Amino acid sequence: MSKEAKIFIDGAAGTTGLEIRERLAGRAGLSLIALSDAERKDAVARKAALNAADLVILCLPDEAAREAVALIDNPEVRVIDASTAHRVAEGWTYGFAELEQGGYQKIAAAKRVSNPGCWPTGFLAIARPLVRAGLVPVDFPLTANGVTGYSGGGKSMIAEFEDQANEAYVETVSRLYGLNLAHKHIPEMQKYAGLSHPPLFQPMVGRFYRGMLVEVPLQLWALPAKPSARDIHAALVKAYPERPLVKVASLEDAAAVKTLDAEILADSNGLSLYVFANDKTQQARVVAAFDNLGKGAGGAAVQNLNIMLGLPETTGL
């Protein structure tokens, strides 16, 4: 990158937008285009900012994100969309660089990048390498469960959980959601894992602000290849060679873990994978730990921005 890159965060006042702005603030080589509160509500001012930027990061509801893309008529403007709007859309590159061979190169060359969702990030980090290695068949009935901090629900959920006058939520420790089995993350999870059926997704939100665990439980005896825990672990290690933001704990380290806190990687931008197993019962619990606002949102967006600008991926992280 030879010249200063102009960056516009559309939706900079939202939870993810604030996280991204914090990571970009004061960085050399970047110039942030800022709009006043009044200008953010002015379509003309927004369109001008969208078209004046070298790279736009959209932190908006889905429909607003689609509208923002439609306002861009400058062919040189590149876009990272942090919403769900374009995650399975044609013409958009999926912004999980570590997931597939050549992922970095595709993101570096892309004009349109969709930032992964937090839940899909954890699920795919586990499931995709196992499907690719043939350890999990494409038609296997996978399940995914876990817990996220309430910041993952945006301003409305944050307000709900932090409303001290609302005794019901003050007393809540955690709660299930997505009970209609049609959560908006499921198409993304199925597509990029390479599954022929959607996984059974069982999300939960807890009374903590940030951090999350995503688990894929496996009955190893039910898998056609009858893989061992070492086979599962080896596939994950092979998938993420020397990746600075994705680490796989050794089986020995995982065996020493008695409990795993969802906030273990809060305020970080990395993701750690653990294989917990019982060889006697041929069962495994494969778990991803990360920050839903870090590698699950803002950190991932900044990683993608760095790759698109030809910078080291961890710059500012």
Model description:
This protein has about 325 residues and is of the alpha/beta class. It folds into 2 domains: about 120 residues, Rossmann fold, CATH 3.40.50; about 180 residues, Dihydrodipicolinate Reductase, domain 2 (2-Layer Sandwich), CATH 3.30.360.10. The chain contains 12 helices and 14 strands. The strands form 2 sheets. Strands 7, 8, 9, 10, 11, 12, 13 and 14 form an 8-stranded mixed sheet that branches. It has a 6-stranded parallel sheet with strand order 2-1-3-4-6-5, sandwiched between helices. Helix 5 links the parallel strand 5 and strand 6. Helix 1 packs across helix 12, helix 6 packs parallel to helix 9 and helix 6 packs across helix 10. About 45% of the residues are buried. The mean pLDDT is about 95.
- The count of domains is 2
Structural class based on helices, strands and sheet pairing: alpha/beta
Number of strands: 14
Which percent range describes the beta-strand content? 15-25%
**Unreliably modeled segments:** none
Gap between N and C termini, in Å? 18 Å
CATH fold call of the largest domain: Dihydrodipicolinate Reductase, domain 2
The largest sheet is: 8 strands, mixed
Total helical segments: 12
CATH superfamily of the largest domain: Dihydrodipicolinate Reductase, domain 2
Instruction: Indicate the CATH class of the largest domain.
Output: Alpha Beta
**Residue-averaged pLDDT, rounded?**
95
Shape: globular
